[in-house]
Amino acid sequence: MTFRILWPLMRWDDDRSIERDALGEGFEPQFAAHFEEISDDDWARCDAIVSYVDIPRESRAKLERCKIFVTPKVGFDNIDLAAWDELGIPVCNVPDYGTMEVADHAIALMLTLMKGTHLHTERLRGDLIGHWEPTLNPFGKRLSDCTFGVVGLGRIGTAAALRAKAFGMKVLFVDPFVSNGVDLALGVERLRSLSEMVSRCDVLSVHAPLCKGTRNLVDGTALERASDLVLVNTARGEVVDLDALYSALKDGRVRAAGLDVLPVEPPKQSHPLLDAFTADEEWIRHRLVLTPHSAFFTPESARDMRAKGTEVAVRFLRDGILENVVDAEKGG
């Protein structure tokens, strides 16, 4: 028996050898760059779908044999889990492809701000001799005297926590879904209140997935108790209330922020924080570092997400082993 796996809206412009090598015998791949390339018969005959984005409702209605939908990435907030659940088709993700990359990026954003890397580089670009000022770093602190707070101690949050511990930082975390005792195993301190953690942190690193319970989790109430905080977000943009962050940066409760993610990507509407950043307004200069949702990317992580996404579908179709199923109750 041959299983057909469909990749709609395939983003990688190459020979797809990574996916083909991960398939093995007994599988027939179909790759499409656009939904319009996929016929009704293609939808009806596929046994699995691997896609970074959800497929249109009208396309889901054409599925007859599909047994699994795999989104080959960590986040699944752009997938209508309830709709797939109604069809009886499990949705799976790939939670282990970019763990190290995103944790590294979170620490890199922290270091960029706290060690003044961007500040010194830009000032020296303007005046290489006049701005040769080694002691000019308004955000600098000895890391081993600082406290690192983790919002969401999953795989990436744990990896970031271990990296912070390697710098000698005290690590706190908040995560209602983590079992008791994990704090003891990792040598970190568990708190039950985000506001309390914010009040005790020098750095707050966000690693929570986006769901109903985490949208705008880091809001004005949470940041009210911040004092000279460095905030880093490499999770999802909507977990941090951008209005609240703008206000906290304005009044100095947050002294600097490093963001790899925004609520809308790329940003399509004006926002005071982003307007101030692009205009290089003096009050925010060197206090905000942005990267374009790039924390996950290395050639190695791209290879992993493609191969692992394929392998999840293959294991289920060939061996009946269902991995990384995401819960419809946590979506949206």
How is this structure best described in words?
The chain is α/β, with parallel strands linked by helices and 332 residues long. It is 35% helix and 15% strand. The chain is built from 13 helices and 12 strands. The protein has helices at 17-23, 40-45, 57-60, 81-87, 99-114, 117-126, 155-166, 182-186, 194-200, 220-223, 242-251, 272-278, 299-319; strands at 3-7, 27-31, 48-50, 68-71, 91-93, 147-151, 170-174, 189-190, 203-206, 229-233, 254-259, 288-290. The strands form 2 sheets. It has a 7-stranded parallel β-sheet, with helices on both faces. Helix 3 links the parallel strand 3 (48-50) and strand 4. Helix 1 (17-23) packs parallel to helix 13 (299-319) and helix 5 (99-114) packs across helix 7. It is elongated, with a radius of gyration of 22 Å. The two termini are 37 Å apart.
